[in-house]
Amino acid sequence: MEERIERIENLLSQLISMVGNMKVENEQRHNELLTKLENVELDQEYIWKKQYGTKGRLTRIVKQRN
Fold it and tell me: Region 24-44: what's the mean pLDDT?
C-alpha cells in the first residue's frame, strides 16, 4: 500500500511539473504571437501610408492634365 501511495505521489508531482512547463511554453508562444501581430500591424500601416501617398500623387497628376 505504501508503494502505491508513493507512486501516486510521484505521478502527481510529474503532472504538476508538466502543467507548469506547458504554462511557460504557452506564455512564450503568446508573446511571440503578439510580437508578430504588432509587426504585421506596422507593416500594414506602412503599406497603407505608401498606398495613400501614391493615390494622392496620381490624383494630382490627373487633375493637372485635365
Answer: 96
Q: What is the mean pLDDT of the chain?
A: 90
Which amino acid, residue 44? Q
Class of residue 65 by CB neighbours under 10 A (exposed 0-12, middle 13-18, buried 19+): exposed
Closest CA to 23 of 35, 31, 34, 12: 31
Q: For residue 31, give the C-alpha cell.
A: 508573446
How many Å apart are CA 51 and CA 2, to the nearest integer?
Answer: 73
- Compute the distance between CA of residue 7 and CA of residue 19 in angstroms, rounded to an integer: 18
Between CA 55 and CA 6 the distance in angstroms is 73
Closest CA to 39 of 26, 31, 28: 31
